[in-house]
Amino acid sequence: MHEMSLAQAVLQLIEDAAVKDQFSKVTTVWLEIGQLSGVEPEAMAFCFDAVTRDSVAGGARLEIVTLPGQGWCMACAKTLPLAEVFGPCPLCGDYQMQVTGGTEMRVKELEVE
Ligand SMILES: [Zn+2]
């Protein structure tokens, strides 16, 4: 389950921010997860709870914001919504779409005390 190492990376980021911005408790974490990132939001939530238990983010609420997938279709010369990485163009059905968005995962915002 790669969500465990991703959750640890998120925690590392939060702990770095805690040192830099001098807060000792995080109450809410907004995490953006791209539709095409391969990250399962439910698995992520589970792992986040596990790795943050004894940290500044222990007991924090995790708000997952899903970002839609996007791809560029050469045939249509357009950026279009893309539901899966190797999915077809929703306009012409071509399978040559290049993924342009929705593969990222990042911490958008922290609510701290
Ligand atoms: Zn197309």
UniProtKB/TrEMBL annotation:
The lineage of its organism: unclassified sequences, metagenomes, ecological metagenomes. Gene3D superfamilies: 3.30.2320.80. InterPro entries: Hydgase_Ni_incorp_HypA/HybF_CS (IPR020538), HypA/HybF (IPR000688). The gene is hypA_10. GO terms for molecular function: nickel cation binding; zinc ion binding. GO terms for biological process: protein maturation. Keywords: Metal-binding, Nickel, Zinc. It holds the Pfam family HypA. PANTHER family: HYDROGENASE MATURATION FACTOR HYPA. This is Hydrogenase/urease nickel incorporation protein HypA. Belongs to the HypA/HybF family.
